[in-house]
Amino acid sequence: MRLRIRTPFLAAAGLAAGLLLLTVGCSLNIEGQQSALDPKGPVAKNQYDIFMLTLYVTTFIFITVGGALAWVLWKFRQRKGDDPNFIPPQSHGHPMLEMGLVIASAGLLVIIAIPTFGGIILKKVVPEELLDGAIEVNVVGFQWWWAFEYPEQGFYTANELVFPAGRAVKINLRADDVIHSFWLPKLAGKVDLIPGQENFIWIMADEPGYFWGQCAEFCGDSHAYMLFRAIALPEDEWEEWLETQQRDTVADDGSFEPLLAREDWGYPEDKILKGAEVFRQACAGCHSVNPRIQTNGPNLAHFGSRTSVAAGWYENEYDLLYRWIREPEKVKPGNFMYRGFLDRDGRTVIMPGLKDYDLSDEEVHAVTAYLYTLR
Ligand code: HEC
Ligand SMILES: [Cu+2]
To answer: Whole-model pTM?
Structure first.
């Protein structure tokens, strides 16, 4: 008898524990790259505090309700010699107890609601004392990458959001194709980018740091590969970065020749010049290398100094960049590199003549090396 009850129970408990382990995700490391439990700025800290408060309140409810249930089950269990047909005296309601439970539940909800509303207001409005020195960035989400515009300085970049540590960053969130969601787990919670609607969030990093971001709203084939990086710099490096980003990186005579001094090219001259030619023919239709112009693909003006490739999916290393340019389809299924882009009605616009481009390995090597001269 005993065995018969215990075996299925243990099996179910084991299964539940196993499923739980599977569903908690890939990492139990609280300091992991995409951990929201390791806040590094005021907005994330506020959201973390609300999360912990909610966790405490719900743990309290779980223990009291679960404890009461377990106690009742134990106290009124059937004992040896009990008459199975015995019906205990019936009661119908207990107004004091019921009122008490309603009031207690409402009270717990209020405890959670007050800081939650505070948090909603906080993330929408930069506090007065942080307005001084705040910077502004326009973010547009695309399938499956991010365009970052610095409107005050008038330049664009992609997939890496750079900003000064210790200052508020006002982020205007837009989308043209489908709904995306901007999520920097260590700096701030998710806010959607919705076509036709203007959303806003602000972030701040307490210290300089390197952060991992992710699109957090399912947006099609390669949604899971729609990452980005955020880099909080010390003040002097930020000023330097700003200045560099606004500089041109290629000659404006249509040759796409890098402006970087030849001795710094790091590759044979003919290779780079060939790369420039490949870029002009096969890439420039979608990618601008002018920091002041945004086209259909990520702006590549200063790509050589970026740390990641393919919207934060790869590190920016030669072999990985080569692989991306050689076969982007294998890296990010369904992505629009070489395929065109989605227009406002969701139709794929194929760039004219694109399909005819079949680059040789040598050409891909040339253009890969070329991209590293754009700094
Ligand atoms: C039809 C338009 C189109 C053409 C042509 C095109 N690309 Fe792209 N490219 C894109 C799009 C769109 C993305 C973003 C893909 C993604 O991450 O989902 C991209 C991404 C990239 C990236 C990664 C950028 C980043 O910040 O992560 C690099 C590098 C790149 N392309 C290089 C090239 C090179 C080199 C060529 C020419 C051989 C080329 N592209 C041709 C549209 C194009
Ligand atoms: Cu997305």
So the answer is: 0.88
